Amino acid sequence: MRLDKYLKVSRLIKRRTVANEACDAGRVSVNGKPARASYDVKTGDVIEITFGNKTVKAEVLRVAETVRKEETADMYKIL
């Protein structure tokens, strides 16, 4: 699954366009390297997102095309 779509489905970022813009601006890195929106997310990847002066680091536990709101917490683990 594409990185921008994963960020939206997992609700780490609210909208896919915002996720796409964050990737283009270099604020999203996967496994320590800056990642493009088209990066293919796999289980075990560590995603780091910078929001202003705050940084969120999460490990991918599950990749799914559609998820109910209550199940989004099962998709990643905050590090």
Structure in words:
The chain has 79 residues and is an alpha+beta fold. It is built from 2 helices and 5 strands, in the order ααβββββ. Strands 2-1-3-4-5 form a 5-stranded antiparallel β-sheet. α1 (3-9) crosses α2. The radius of gyration is 11 Å and the shape is globular.
Topology:
Blueprint: H1 3-9, H2 16-24, E1 28-30, E2 33-34, E3 46-51, E4 54-60, E5 76-78
Antiparallel strand pairs: 1-2, 1-3, 3-4, 4-5
Structure, briefly:
The protein has 79 residues and is α+β, with helices and mostly antiparallel strands.
What share of the residues does DSSP label as strand, in percent?
A: 25-35%
Distance between the termini: 21 Å
CA radius of gyration is: 11 Å
Q: Summarize the amount of helix as a percent range.
A: 10-25%
The structure class reads: alpha+beta
Give the overall form: globular
Number of strands: 5
State mean pLDDT (0 to 100 scale): 93
Considering the chains and any ligands shown, give keywords for the structure.
single chain, 79 residues, alpha+beta, five-stranded antiparallel β-sheet, 5 strands, 20% helix, 27% strand
